[in-house]
Amino acid sequence: MATTFKAVITLPAAALAIAALTSCGGGGDTNAGSDAKGGNAAAGAGADVAVGSVLFPDNFKGVCSGAGVATATAYDPAGTTHKALYFATYRDDFSDRSHSLPDGWTVQFSPDGDALRAVDLVVCARRTAAREVRVCSGFRSNGRETQNRVRWHTATYELSVREARTGRELAKTTAEATNEDCPMFQTFNGESETIDGYANLSDTAVADFLRPHVTR
To answer: Could you tell me which residues come within 8 angstroms of residue 208 by beta carbon, excluding any fewer than 6 positions away?
Structure first.
């Protein structure tokens, strides 16, 4: 039996519908957007973050492309305490997914201090390929079924871990995101849009890859 989820509609210049899936059920991560299948992320390569600036999560995106954050903590492989941020491909950029890391492995931004200076590692999941496996429909907005569709893909990711201060790559592997379930919730522009969505790596896969660099 299908379950109906609440939907929210906001109306700026263009209607933005946050619709809920009822007929193509399933959980799993969603990473939908208008980027081409298998498109690479082009996140913030360039100059290192300047000394003296307060750090935000976005300041660390460039680490995934080899840029360093000069005020981040230097990585000591023999150290007993490490803090990491995690970024994954979203559209043509990277999205901060650090909340999915195990407890104690990351640090949250705080307006009362420069908490992110404690970060010494950045793990990056860059999508390199994708395969369409189904088209998801049955999304509802305000209880009314829409014509929205999601072309859902499984995906291949290049998974790497880098030193936050220098951008130096410590390890790299290839991992598969094989979740074929449709997203329960999705954002659309209007009520007849078809967009691409991509499976994310499981939290376990990312944690297993990062663990040798965080725990001893």
So the answer is: none
Q: Encoding tokens for residue 84?
A: 């990491």
Is residue 107 a contact partner of residue 118, using CB atoms and an 8 Å limit? yes
Residue length, the chain? Answer: 216
* pLDDT less than 70: residues of the chain: 1-52
Helix (H) or strand (E) holding 204, with range, is helix 203-214
**Cβ-based neighbour number of residue 14 at 10 Å:** 7
Residue 181 has φ and ψ, to the nearest 5°, of -75, 140
Q: What is the pLDDT of residue 46?
A: 46
Q: How many helices (H) and strands (E) does the chain have?
A: 1, 11
Residue pair 162/122 in contact (Cβ under 8 Å)? The answer is: yes
In the chain, where are the structural domains located? 8-214
Alpha carbon distance 190, 193 (integer Å): 6
Q: Phi/psi class of residue 14: alpha, beta or left (left: φ > 0; alpha: ψ in -120 to 50)?
A: beta
Distances (CA, A) of 96 to 7, 41, 61, 117, 158: 24, 13, 8, 16, 16
Our CA dihedral for 72, 100, 33, 11, rounded to 10 degrees, sits at: -100
Per-residue pLDDT reduced to its tens digit, 50-72: 445 789 999 999 999 999 999 99
